[in-house]
Specification:
238 residues
Length: 238
Amino acid sequence: MILTMEALSFVRQGRAILSNATAVISDHALTCLVGPNAAGKTTLLRILSGELRATSGRFLVGNTDASALSQREIARYFSIIPQGIQPPPHLTVSELVALGRFPPNRALWWRLSDRDREVIHACLARCQIEQLSKQRVEDLSGGEQQRAWLAFGLAQGKTFLLLDETLDGLDIFAKRSFFQLLKEVASEGEGVLLTTHDLDLVTNFADRVVVLSSGRVSYEGPPNLNLQHLFFPASSRD
């Protein structure tokens, strides 16, 4: 399935955060959204997740105009791991991943089904954290926590996975390992859209790159060694 962004713009207090952002994101692909601070990356992900409404433009999932849907309806297509997410206290890894199966419309009657347990086990295995399933998330290393959050996102079974700067604070070895995992996840069918500043890893692992600069898409295509020259200075954070 294809995610198509058509001339998305967002204006806050008279300032254009996004200006006619147009790009295509496919499933079966790891797409990296890159750009300097204040380029509009986080704003774009918040629009795709339904948290914000675009001032103009639209985005489509397949043939569905998702920008016209409610945030709950948009959530059928996207799972998101936001920037700076904190580990929930006391929850084990398996309990966190189980929350990915939570159906909001059946909250009072929800119990894990056999199918839910199969999905949880598969996601733990897919993220190579089966041996950590009984450990508390807060006791894990940064790289292990990111794998737990990824398993949580995958357990939701959505078409696209959105990750906003989730690798900040990890060492280079943990980052490379996580990029490799994301590439494998994408190759198996999910569309993965990751915001990041790690251009070397983007060049090595990404299938596609979207470069945002001053709220505009300045490049969309395969990764290359000259991404940095597409960036323009920005004076404030996104």
